[in-house]
Amino acid sequence: MNQKITYELPNGISLEIKREDLLHPFISGNKFRKLKYNLLQAKAENQETVLTFGGAYSNHIAAVAYAGKEQGFKTIGVIRGEELGDKIADNPTLQFAQECGMQFEFVTREAYRLKTEPDFIANLRQKFGSFYLVPEGGTNEYAIKGCEEILTEEDTAFDFICCAIGTGGTISGIINSVLAHQKVLGFPALKGDFLKDEIRKFVANENWELITDYHFGGYGKVNEELVQFINQFYRQTQVPLDPVYTGKMVFGVIDLIQKNYFPNNAKILLIHTGGLQGIQGMNLILKNKNKTLIDV
Ligand SMILES: *Cc1c(COP(=O)(O)O)cnc(C)c1O
Predict the structure, then answer these.
(1) Mutation to probe ligand 1, out of 149, 165, 194 (largest number of atoms < 8 A from CB)
(2) Partners of 210 in the beta sheet?
(3) Structure pTM?
(4) What is the architecture of the domain spanning 30-138?
(5) Which end of the chain is more exposed for a tag (fewer CB within 10 A), N or C?
(6) Which residue from 61, 245, 294 has its CB within 8 A of the most atoms of ligand 1, so it is best to mutate?
(7) What residue segments make up the domains of the chain, in order of their start?
(8) For the segment 137-167, what is each residue's pLDDT rounded down to a tens digit?
(9) 186: helix, strand or coil
(10) Has 130 been annotated as catalytic?
(11) Phi, psi at 269, each rounded to 5°
């Protein structure tokens, strides 16, 4: 569903947002798309268990945990950060995942870096038996196939499609499904140059660009300006944004509009990839630092 954004915009520019956050109450936006064909594949392979990876506040971990419960899979989450093992009660994401039945394997940051190594995975198979592996963030060919279903016939008139980026899977599906006159702008939520090559592995089109100025210091980092923006955007439009992904992307798009980046009368579509479950965890961190909270 696309929602018109009633925001004061210059130069005849129009803005709509695709509310993928409303696809499912617990399986957030793009994670729903990314899991769809993965779970069909897991079933086709007769797997009973799905194992995946994520950080302390991961939207993907929450999504896999709930989808597993809903569809009858056991789920295992390999979690970055050994110290989180005795802090589940303080972490809304992990608590939710645990309530959904997810079993955790907490690993050190050093070990987590090895998560795609055959030895590391062989050890997990020895410990947990057979499982269907979904990579960190859910990104693989099945995920991209699912994300190719985000844009539909109602979206053909847009000139620009804007989307937040973590691992690059979501934007790859979008790039594969746009028309020749459309351009995809990706806003990485983290620092690093690796994303361009990552996305190139999955796409053939050239009509996309990364805008790397709006990561706010890195993955999961926020500042007062961003929090204020999210709160003000919500008051003005009634659209809640998350602080890790969509808040940064929409901040960037509004900033670029004000800097005349877009041509006159551009029709812009924002993809709301969800992630709202992360607000609670972020607010606990902000509260500890006596900072302004996200009040959406
Ligand atoms: C995971 C996530 C993303 C990033 O998606 P990728 O496919 O990893 O690039 C963007 N937005 C939200 C809300 C997410 O949870």
Answers:
(1) 165
(2) 186
(3) 0.96
(4) 3-Layer(aba) Sandwich (3.40)
(5) N
(6) 245
(7) 2-25+144-288, 30-138
(8) 889 999 999 999 999 999 999 999 999 999 9
(9) strand
(10) no
(11) -115, 125
